[in-house]
Design a protein that fits this description.
About 35% of the residues lie in helices and about 20% in strands. By secondary structure, the protein is α/β, with parallel strands linked by helices. The chain folds into two domains: about 1-140 and about 215-290, 3-Layer(aba) Sandwich (Rossmann fold); about 140-215, no CATH class. An eight-stranded mixed sheet has the order 1-2-4-3-5-6-7-8, with helices on both faces. The protein has a two-stranded antiparallel sheet with strand order 9-10. Helix 1 (about 45-55) packs across helix 10 (about 280-290) and helix 8 (about 190-205) crosses helix 9. The longest helix is centred in the middle third of the chain and has 21 residues, at about 150-170. The protein is globular, with a radius of gyration of 18 Å.
């Protein structure tokens, strides 16, 4: 991988990781957005980049702020509805190569960011962006948080995320002084409490409910005007079945494929241990190959 640091308009930075392979001249470019507390190192990101590389495409991953292995400069982090950095990166990529055909895959939180951005811009999405894929997207953040904050999910997944959040809070404590009540923030045990104590005040939301409402991608789906595919699983432990969009209500050009099984960013197929692969990653690349 080759790392490129991009300055952001607000004086911060984001890191891009490029697949260390020569793309075919004039080939499409794949941009991958990771999930909550993920990075280019996430298995699904590397697999998507590798699949693009085998087709001769260019491939690059955007690490959200604080996720590249080096803490970002500003007090803010990133969040599920933060489309500004994606917009900035797409603008730079398309300015460098005006004739590029760009496909974007967003996974989990990254899928929410992608779909919200596509809906926010509608027809104004740069013409070079020919398609997008969202995998295991949390379309309704409040419903997903309520699910994650109880029972098995809280005891396993949420506990792990809270550890990661608190490590970053401690690393950035000096910058957060006066913006976040650190004593409260370091005591939180649920997503709801974390969003109330940290996400909302740090990113300009009135409270956690305001954040969930304004950052969810579900209300933006009807405004999407690019070819898109959304992939999900009916047994996703993070995303309740009732928040999955009704395929009949999606705009022309937006397709939904919901598997009975697949979990969250799982979708494993094959026969262990000889060959196990992710159907969702393969399907995402196949879909984009058909539009790029």
């Amino acid at each position: 991988m080759r790392r490129e640091r991009l300055a952001t308009p607000d004086g911060d930075f984001v890191d891009l990781d490029w697949l260390d392979a020569d793309a075919t001249a004039g080939a499409p470019l794949l941009l991958v957005l990771h999930g909550l507390e993920g990075s280019t190192a996430s298995h699904y990101v590397r697999a998507l980049l590798a699949r693009a590389g085998t087709r001769g495409w260019g491939a690059v991953s955007l690490n959200f702020r604080s996720c590249s292995g080096e803490m970002n400069r500003l007090p803010r982090f990133y969040h599920s509805g933060d489309t500004g950095d994606l917009d900035h990166v797409v603008g730079l990529l398309t300015a460098r190569a005006p004739g590029v055909r760009l496909g974007v895959v967003g996974v989990s939180l990254g899928g929410n960011v992608l779909l919200k951005w596509l809906g926010e811009l509608g027809e104004a999405v740069p013409a070079q962006v020919v398609g997008g894929v969202g995998i295991s997207v949390p379309y309704d953040l409040e419903a997903c948080v309520r699910l994650m904050d109880v029972g098995f999910q809280k005891a396993t997944y949420t506990v792990s995320f809270m550890r990661s959040f608190k490590r970053k809070l401690r690393a950035k404590a000096r910058l957060l002084d006066g913006l976040v009540d650190m004593r409260e923030a370091l005591r939180v045990r649920t997503f709801a409490a974390y969003d109330r104590a940290v996400t909302a005040p740090l990113h300009g939301f009135a409270d956690e409910v305001d954040y969930w409402s304004r950052a969810s991608s579900g209300p933006y789906l009807e405004r999407i005007r690019r070819r898109a595919l959304v992939i999900g699983a009916l047994d996703d432990p993070f995303v309740p079945r009732h928040v999955l969009p009704d395929p009949a209500t999606l705009p022309l050009g937006v397709r939904a494929e919901f598997a009975r099984h697949g979990g969250h960013v799982g979708f494993m197929e094959g026969r262990w241990p000889w060959r196990v692969d992710s159907w969702a990653e393969q399907r995402a690349i196949e879909f984009l190959a058909g539009v790029m």
